[in-house]
Fold:
Amino acid sequence: MVNLQSNFTLAMLDKLQELISEVQAFSANSKEKVEAFRIKFLGSKGILKDLFTEFKNVEPSQKKEFGQTLNTLKTLAETKVSELNNHLENSTQSKKVYGDLTRPGEPIELGTRHPISIVKNQIIDVFSRIGFTISEGPEIEDDWHNFTALNLPEYHPARDMQDTFFVEKNPDMLLRTHTSSVQIRYMENNKPPIRTISPGRVFRNEDISARSHCIFHQVEGLYIDTDVSFADLKQTLIYFTKEMFGKSKIRLRPSYFPFTEPSAEVDIYWGLKTETDYRITKGTGWLEIMGCGMVDPNVLKNTNIDPEKYSGFAFGMGIERIAMLLYQIPDIRMLFENDVRFLEQFKSVI
Ligand code: DAH
Structure:
């Protein structure tokens, strides 16, 4: 009897060892399989439950060993279940992050450049190709750089051409009315030969309408060297209009600017092919795009450049006007409202 019971216990111990090996070797690639394993070993009608029931039949001297082995099996099975579940959870999480790696990538939403920036960059590009540098100056300017040095002394009637915003507490300071002020700063700080363009924001105390705004942008150009002639100016303008608009027919209309002598207004022949051309050019085919001229000797003197030795030309154009022309924008205010529906339309342009 004693032997029989002892044999029974030994068989049970062997069985426990087998089960331990089975638990250790177990692996699963789905939660369902882990759950089936858990039910098989740890469930209310599982193997461990049966074994604990068998415990009472174990020979007393073997109870200790049997009990310890049984506990080992139980702990191993419990650890296995939680380890496998953790592992599967982590790997489904990483699947969620990476998704299907063979899928084509999601397109990245591109931002849009503002049409003013697009046109400004195009103008910069065109002039960079023929050796012009880029220069900038302050938007809050003093009277000297915005007016006096540009041959517009106090009480000069031409000051009225540009309605100025003055700084309230200091009438010598103002918001620059044109980027010509940067010409002066550049000439004060650099020696000829000078070839520079100055893009920037300017301000005028004007009523806001579809065609004019109190804030807008200009690009100023300046070329100073020995023997610079009006022919050089004209060639530069022809080059610019050809590169910028694909049109090279221009005309120079005599005009007046205090800082240039002689001065001219530049018109390009836009044509009358379409209804829009007709409207843009008011039926003439010609369109004014900028002011220009030979730098007045007084301006050179004001910046300590010898007018006997050097001469030069300058020009200035409005960026809004050109942007409106190129993109057929009917109202200048659209350029300042930042309506996303308007701005989005420039996505494809660099
Ligand atoms: N500063 C002028 C304006 O704002 C534009 C201009 C005209 C600039 C002739 C020039 C120039 O450099 O030569 O209306």
